[in-house]
Amino acid sequence: MPEQPIVKMVNISKRFGAVQALDRVSLDVNEGEVLGLLGDNGAGKSTLIKILAGIFPPTEGEIYFEGKPVRLSSPKEARELGIETVHQKLSLVDIMTISRNFFLGREPVKKIGPFSFLDKRKMDEECRKVVTQVGVRVRDPNEYVSILSGGERQAISIGRAMYFGARILILDEPMTALSVREQRTVIEEVKNAKAAGAAIIFITHNVYHVYPVADRFVILDKGKKIGEVTKAEVTAEELTEIVAAGSMTGAPEKGS
To answer: Which residue from 101, 85, 42, 104 is spatially nearest to 172, judged by alpha carbons?
Structure first.
């Protein structure tokens, strides 16, 4: 592991009016590491990650990227740093083709005189190459996303993020409503992203979804960080009990 984490969030708090969604939460993640961000519904996981993704500003706290303080005012600013998010439901648009989805908002263009046109050939070729690499069998990149299974959508979303140079890959409940076979597809893509050196934050309330690939876990409950453990320090069953109880009471001591 590198001495300096690629991203460090320090004492992050977020209030929405009278509601304290996050209360002085800190975490860091290293390149080539999978961090499982765990907690039951309402724990504050998604709020914390939306702050890192530039969707919400923190009420208090600091974010450091490669040791330098940053202020992320928009998802565009986050993406420029290499922070890519694969959302649970909104990663791909059903009524658009696979190729258009792949390059959505980042379409390559070619110029003819004073005019700019979508470089459709490049879009189709690059999309087909990446989709094949992630193990999704698509006859034509101009087919609509609606034909894809949930696992295929997630695999393509992860492949797209890595294609555009993700250094921090945020996965928001990527296994929800997937079959066992589809979950395996996603797990393989997480392993590929890790092997490529990306830092991965895997958000879930289900320990068994992330435990096979995670190196370390941060557990939230009701907007507070209640613990942090490495995979070597805790079993999946013990971790599940911690999440369910909302407390580290009875958890193994670090280093034991």
So the answer is: 85
Question: For residue 252, what pLDDT band results from cuts at 50, 70 and 90?
Answer: low
Q: According to the CATH classification, is domain 7-92+166-245 in 3.40.50.720?
A: no
List alpha helices for the chain, DSSP H: 45-52, 75-80, 98-102, 120-133, 150-163, 180-195, 207-210, 236-245
Distance CA(27)–CA(206), nearest Å, equals: 19
User: Rounded distance, CA 156 to CA 192, Å?
Assistant: 13
CA–CA dist 135, 156 (Å, integer): 9
pLDDT digits (tens, 9 = 90+) for 12-43: 999 999 999 999 999 999 999 999 999 998 89
Question: Domain boundaries in the chain?
Answer: 7-92+166-245, 94-147
Q: What's the chain's length in residues?
A: 256
Nearest 5°: CA angle at 86, between 18 and 110? 120
Residue 1, C-beta contacts closer than 8 angstroms, at least 6 positions apart: 30, 32, 33
Cβ-proximal residues to 217 (8 Å cutoff; 6+ apart), any chain: 35, 36, 37, 38, 210, 228, 229, 230, 231, 234, 239
More confident residue, 158 or 62: 62
Q: What is the CA radius of gyration of the chain?
A: 19
Enter the DSSP assignment of 144.
Answer: B
Q: Three-state DSSP class for 227? A: strand
* DSSP letter, residue 106: -
What tokens does 178 get?
Answer: 């997937």
pLDDT for 84 equals 93
